[in-house]
Amino acid sequence: MAQNTLILGLQWGDEGKGKIVDALAENSEVVCRFQGGHNAGHTIKVDGEEKVLHLVPSGILHPSIDCVLGNGLVLSLRALSEEILELEKSGINFKDRFYISNDCCLILPTHIQIDKVRDKSEGIGTTGKGVGPAYEDKVARRAIRFGDLKDLSFLKPKLKILVEYHNKILMHLYDSDPVPFKDVEEELVEHQKLYDKFHTPTQELLSEWVQDNKKIIFEGAQGSMLDIDHGTYPYVTSSSTTAGGLLTGLGIGPKYIDSILGITKAYTTRVGEGPFPTELFDENAKQLAKIGHEFGATTGRPRRCGWLDLKALEKIMFVNSVTSLCVTKLDVLDRFKEIKICIDYDENQDPIYKTFIGWKTQISNIKTFTDLPKEAQEYILFIETYLRCPVDIISVGPSRDQTIYKS
């Protein structure tokens, strides 16, 4: 693996990034996350036990890895506290290896309430976690940041003004009940210990690590097609999920990224509303959802399923400057007689498909590319050729050891 690697999802999220970060972290020293909130979710299976992470970087499962939450995140203190507690109960240590940027903007209870009532009328399909409203406050320069927890007495007047503003929105725009100021204040007081334990000027720390030639993984959340600028707007998330988001979300320059690994499922899924050209509504869709366990790690919502869309991937790979690919969940296609890939769209923007013969055999225990069935190899090689990019990693199951390293 290269010195510093950016790992990104290339679809609408849920590509299996967590497992790949976890697998590659074994040969790294640092894992940094740079955007999003607890609306993201990574499910990782280790020794038969599942771990679901929403905020904490996937590298935390390796005891020697340092983990960073960068300034590009929006942070729910309650969600983070609960996640840390759950992980600590399972024996994972956070002491002296978990760092949170002072510049992370906080998600308040009022953000969550606004998110929930607003999406009922707008129908974007958000997770209702308060992420969008928190990013709005960040851009409007009125957000409360993690570093503000240093002095709550100094923070209180600013917090009061913000909560009053939020409550005006709730009452007068959405005809909803206000959130009592004391509820918001109590949440910050209750979780101030997170600041005491983990607050860090993370940009300075990253600068030191780069000078010390430490191997760093940069971990994206959600997927590139949910990017606020380059995704299927307005059905997107509120942060930059593409490579550009790394630079601003951690405060690190592009010359420190040595490789960019793009992750795609062997098919396509999407949670929530928005366009999905290759979406299926037949028995194939049901089979993909059932075999692939296509339910959101954060929300439990069923995912919409369809064939792989190479035309969409081609565009988003250019945006991200992807240098290599990882194809996940190839094993989900084991039972299909025929498998399709979208290679273009017609004049009505309907997908044009190339059809492949399925391999109709279990591949979850295969360790090398050459041992895969000929039909599965042909499927992967076509993806490489079309996208003009090598597929270096293939995931054939949820566990760490169910991973084929092609090169």
Given as residue ranges, the uncertain stretches (5+ residues, pLDDT < 50) are none
Can you count the beta strands? 19
Question: So what's the overall shape?
Answer: globular
The description of the largest β-sheet is: 10 strands, mixed
- Supply the number of structural domains: 3
Provide the helix percentage: 25-40%
Output the number of helix runs.
12
Structural class: alpha/beta
Mean pLDDT: 94
CATH class of the largest domain: Alpha Beta
Radius of gyration: 21 Å
- The end-to-end distance, rounded to whole angstroms, is 10 Å
Strand content: 15-25%
The CATH topology assignment of the largest domain is Adenylosuccinate Synthetase, Chain A, domain 1
**Main sheet: strand order:** 9-7-5-2-10-1-11-15-18-19
CATH homologous superfamily assignment of the largest domain = Adenylosuccinate Synthetase, subunit A, domain 1
What is the CATH architecture descriptor of the largest domain?
Answer: 3-Layer(aba) Sandwich
Structure overview:
It is a single chain. With 407 residues, the chain is α/β, with parallel strands linked by helices. Helix content is 33%, strand content 20%. It folds into three domains: 158 residues, 3-Layer(aba) Sandwich (Adenylosuccinate Synthetase, Chain A, domain 1); 89 residues, Adenylosuccinate Synthetase, subunit A, domain 2 (Orthogonal Bundle), CATH 1.10.300; 141 residues, Adenylosuccinate Synthetase, Chain A, domain 3 (Alpha-Beta Complex), CATH 3.90.170.10. It has a ten-stranded mixed β-sheet with strand order 9-7-5-2-10-1-11-15-18-19, with helices on both faces. The chain has a three-stranded mixed β-sheet with strand order 14-16-17. A hairpin with a 7-residue loop joins strand 18 and strand 19. The radius of gyration is 21 Å and the shape is globular. It starts with a strand and ends with a strand.
